[in-house]
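ok so for the tutorial part 2 we go from a plain amino acid sequence to predicted structure tokens. step 1 is just haveing the sequence, like this:
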Amino acid sequence: MNQTQVAQKSTPKIALLLRRLTNYLTLDFLGGPRLWKFSWVINFQKAGTFFFLGFLIWYYQNTSSAAWVYLAMHGSYGIVWIIKDLAFPDANWQKRITIGGGLVAFFGVLFWYWVFGWLLISGTVKPDYPLPHFIWYCLCISLCIIGSVIMIAADAQKFFTLRVQKGLITDGMHRYIRHPNYLGEMMIYGSFALMVWHWLPVVILAYVWLCVFAVNMVLKEASMSRYPEWAVYKKNSWWLIPWVF
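step 2 — the prediction. this is what the tokens look like for a chain of 245 residues:
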């Protein structure tokens, strides 16, 4: 049995099951022709976020500091994503998907990220932050910016490194943690949830992080374990947060 077969055999069955389910729902749901790329669906939501939130501010006539801060954070992140996709697109998002798969991806996950902003800007939620507003805004903005930098740097390093050298990436953004891109994404969306300060974003993020992010990280680790240098790299690095886990 070679190293690849050993890695596949050691992969938790629940992770493989969830991956197959997610792939079916987002790539093959209802079958039929694959008329669009996964990236088109994602980019539509990302690019549309700034305009959607701006529309909500106009529609609800909410010109509060919280509304504008949230627009700046979530809307700008969407633009950052588009810039990233133009400069170094992720191969995982270039897959062709069915119409049903695209609809599931949008309304099953991506649309709910827009609900975050609607809850805040519509006035449905009136956050009672545990700290003064100006301190809370500073915390949320800082998390969003730092998370964006970590995510962008990690994805850029992976994209450009693998173009010239295959194998494990064990330096740069990946020196201390093995999944810096996921850490960045979690910081970004965590900052949005903190701005809204409501239970619904927490439930949505818990689902995405446990059923999608965690599964992807488990499968990635299983794949990386086929490399001879994996054991040393794993020993000298952390899963997601340095010196924590």
